[in-house]
Amino acid sequence: MNETRHRVLAALADGPVSGPALADELAVSRSAVWKHVEALREAGFEIDSGDDGYTLSAVPEFGGPAVEYGLDAPFTVEYHDSVPSTNARARDLAADGAGDVVVLADEQTGGRGRLDRDWHSPSGGIWCSVLVRPDVPMADAPVFTLAAAVAATRAAREAGVDASIKWPNDVLVDGADGERKLVGILTEMEGEADRVSWVVVGVGVNANVDPADLPAEAEPTSLSAELGEPVDRRTFTQRFLELFDDLRTDPDAVLDEWREYSGTLGREVRVETPDGEVVGEAVDVAFPGALVVETDDGRVTVSAGDCDHLRPV
Ligand code: BT5
Which end of the chain has less Cβ packing within 10 Å, N or C? Predict the structure, then answer.
């Protein structure tokens, strides 16, 4: 959304404001004001026009302008009703030189998980990829996956869902019938060893989705299933982006909050790594995102793999 349109919205939110007064305030023509108001109505904003002028009366439930409106983070949002994969789109934007862009979709038709697995993304979810250009070495990039997991978990808790993090990239809800997957994260990047060029953090949140429409073997859940009513996707997305923005430059805070929200630490785990299986008690997380496991043969630090929670220790 361009700067003038942001300012139109801000003025209407404090409305009523007349077309001529708005034109003066923004130093644009009256017909330009009218075009901005019509474009905002097209985007789903409800704008009343009365004798005193225009007033903003409702913000759309979801979409790019809706998420950008009132967002306290420096991202522009590109929204799609349907797209093959927000990560693939964000990678294209990265190749064009973009940064601090969020690609957001209501539905994905070719969503991807790690290791080329499928990610089911029906309408009603929050399918979101954040493209950033941090000034860090490639080896540090896993901390962005942890930051996204922390931000998604905190946003879920603020929405009333008691989520926790499973190392390295899942957000789960522990219910009567065991742990169910609420959020998955796929981080992709490009660069030289000493410096990242871009990082795309893809976050899939089962928001207002019926878990019956997701693969049963994945043991999925959704925010709406947990709450018994739809969640406000606009607020959730804004909180996620604001929290992620705060954390992306503060790795110590990421690790501290990750420990606080972790469902993995203190558990007996089995991690399938490229070098074999590691079984033991998960005792800590280490920068930039490794899991420290106390095994019968001593401490092992695992930097990548699929993790299963076994019984509590
Ligand atoms: C992940 O992979 O959990 C990462 C998922 C990232 C998805 C986001 S959505 C926005 C962005 N655009 C993309 O194209 N991707 C990212 P992994 O840990 O490999 O888990 C994949 C497994 O989760 C699958 O094999 C299924 O078993 C299961 N699964 C698929 N869809 C699911 C869903 N909606 N909810 C829960 N589990 C699901």
Answer: C
